[in-house]
Structures are given as C-alpha cells and as structure tokens.
Amino acid sequence: MTITAPRPLIGVAANARLADPRRQSLYAAGERYVRSLMKMVDCIPVLMPPVGTAMDVASLVSRMDGFVLTGGIANVEPHHYGGPAFPPDEPIDPGRDALVLPLVRACIAQRVPVFGICRGIQEINVALGGSLHYRIHALPGKDDHRMPRREDVTPEEVYRLRHMVRLTPGGLFHSLTGEDEMLVNSLHGQGVDRLGEGLVVEATSHDGVVEGVRYEDQAQFIVGVQWHAEWQPGEHTLSGALYAAFGEAARARAARRGPGGGGAG
C-alpha cells in the first residue's frame, strides 16, 4: 500500500485590528498571503491569532510544518530590541509580538520552516537579538521605501516593482535564481538595523537596506524578505523560488511528523 505524504500544516500569522472602538479587536491576515500560499504550496493554511503568551508556543510549533509571518500595519515594539519609544499614535500589536518572537526561536530549536514577509523579516531579526531602524527614510543617504500615500492609489501601483536588490554571491537567493540582482516592490517604513545572531544577509538595496536574510544553518529554512513576496509570486522569479523552497522544507517536515503527528521533528 502506498502511503501519501500528508499535506503540510502552515501557520499564518494574523494581526489584531480594532475595526470599531465600540467592539473587540478583530484577528485577520491579508487574503493575498493565504491565497498565494495555497497556490504556491500544496498545504493547509491555519490562521494563527495574535494572543501572546496565552498560546503554548512549543506545543504549537511541534504540531505544525511551517509558518508564514505576514506583514501588517503595526510595527514590532522597540522595547523588544532596546530602541527609543514609539510616538503615542504609532500602531502596535503587542499580542503578535509576544507570540511570534518566541515562536521564531522555537522554530529554530525544532527545525520548523519559517518564511517572514515584510514585518516577518523584522520579527525574525528581533527574535534573534537584532534591532530595527524606526524610519529608514529619515536616515542620511536612504531612500523612501514606503508605499504611495495617495487615496486613489491602485493595488497594482502599491505593489509595483520599484527598486533593485543585490543578491549575495553564493547565497541561497543567488543559488535559487542564478541572478545577481532582482527588482522588488517596497512598502515598508522600518527595516533591519543590527543583524540578529545567526542571520546571514541575502539581499540588499542600492542604499544599503537589508532586504533578505536567512538563518546560518542551511539545513533549515528560516528566511525573511523585506518586500511583499505574496504579491503575484508566480510572476516573480525570486519570490516564486522562495515559496517553492519553503514548500519543500514544509513537506519534509510533514513527512517526518507523519499523519496526525504532533511530536517535535
């Protein structure tokens, strides 16, 4: 009898949103993250609510085959990396911070794949002891990497390819594409400052902003990108290749766990 490998279970980080001040927050993730994941990886996506320490991280990680850390309006709070306090009106998501930062470390310990996108690369960096620039465009010699601010802007304009990133020679990104440079979109205000322990830079913009990282153990898929790889990954060489590599790692994890498995792999 042929045993079919189980479809991997992929946790998708959700954000807390206060849609109406008279009601409770909503937990949500952008539709494109889920649909792109389902298109590029034959998996079962599971939205992961940002409930902080109410979730048993070790147990959660042991039951999953991978995690996608999505973008979001809120930024990682600076007390997690010793940075100056945010202005009072800065959006925050403390429940997500409290869940995802230890989750990244647990994924490394249990060898569970992680793909971080936009906020996700920042979470990976902070989880491993790194720090963030609060506003890249305010730094000398840096470009404005934020999305267009007009009210009439279309999704196509928001996610259009805006600048080149240089891929580290001999690195993972370079090996997946065979390219030295790649055009990417750009929708972020914060960015990596001090690199987290064990992280390797895979891509940088022309003005020196870190655009891609991976964990130093190449036997694990712990990867973060600053651009929005969930936007049309099938039409972007590097984003598509990263989804494929993430899917391969998640399927290998699912095969180790086996049908209904819940133990650490």
Q: Notable features of this structure?
A:
7 helices; Rossmann fold; two-stranded antiparallel ribbon; 265 residues; alpha/beta; nine-stranded mixed beta sheet
Compact description:
This protein has 7 helices and 13 strands. The protein has helices at residues 31-40, 57-62, 94-110, 119-127, 155-158, 172-177, 237-257; strands spanning 9-13, 15-17, 26-28, 44-48, 66-69, 114-117, 132-133, 163-167, 181-184, 191-192, 199-205, 210-215, 222-225.
Report what the structure shows.
- The chain is an alpha/beta fold.
- The chain has one domain (9-257): Rossmann fold, CATH 3.40.50.
- Helices cover 28% and strands 20% of the residues.
- It has seven helices and 13 strands.
- It has a nine-stranded mixed beta sheet with strand order 4-1-5-6-13-12-11-8-9, sandwiched between helices. It has a two-stranded antiparallel sheet with strand order 2-3. Strands 7-10 form a two-stranded antiparallel sheet.
- Helix 3 (94-110) crosses helix 4.
- The model has no long low-confidence stretch (mean pLDDT 92).
